[in-house]
Write a structure and sequence with these properties.
- The protein is of the alpha+beta class and about 170 residues long.
- It has four helices and eight strands.
- The strands form three sheets. A four-stranded mixed β-sheet has the order 3-1-5-4, sandwiched between helices. A two-stranded antiparallel sheet has the order 2-6.
- A hairpin with a 2-residue loop joins strand 4 and strand 5.
Length: about 170
Amino acid sequence: MRWRWYYRILALFSPLALFVLRCIVNPLLRNKRVRVVLLHPDGRVLLVINALGDRHWTLPGGGVGRHEDLVDAAIRELHEELKINLSAHALMQLGEVRVRGYQAPLFVAQLSRSQVAQILPDKFEIYAAQWYDVHHIPSGAQSVVRSALELLSRHEGVGKIGGVTLS
């Protein structure tokens, strides 16, 4: 496991990095962090654990650059983290929630089986990635996951995906 050293170093610096991000950077810059609900054809949702962070399951996504369009940020983050290329029309905006001191615009994308096969988590960005049934989300998942799934279940036209009812 050649990545083990990298994750051990990150584990040492994660608490400090999180403190700086949450208490200094986010309040000063008022950054938004896009999050994307990626849906498997069978209705499962992709959750990730970021390499740098609190090691809780969350949705893929990340910071929006200055003057960057939200959709462009979502597409960029998906490519950086998961090496998947989606077009703007593949994303549907669900809304926005406030999470841990930042605004999180939420998007959803229904993936095809070929797109699912293309997903390759970047080891420097993502510690772990796993598909979960929408009704069996891990108890330690970040609140943005449940908020996004709640918005998704109420969103017109997205109440049932892959034969799975989301409500």
